[in-house]
Amino acid sequence: MADKKAPVKKSTEKVAAKAENLSFAFGKENYTIMAIGLVVIIIGFFLMSGKEDIFSTTKLTIAPILVILGFLIEVVAIMRKSKD
Fold this sequence. Notes:
This protein has 3 helices and no strands.
């Protein structure tokens, strides 16, 4: 018995239709803000690292503030309604 297979054209049309309906959870602006928040967090952890002068103002005050600020930026990026 011969198997009946759907023509290739119909299956590619289905894939194209699914791709049109596919959308991201956030808009471009949200992802940009998330990237900025991630950079701020990385800078904070970079300033916090190291073994020399562990009681410096940078390691005890500025770096933790930057990390917390980065996480707050991430929350804002997630909660902000995209205009797209």
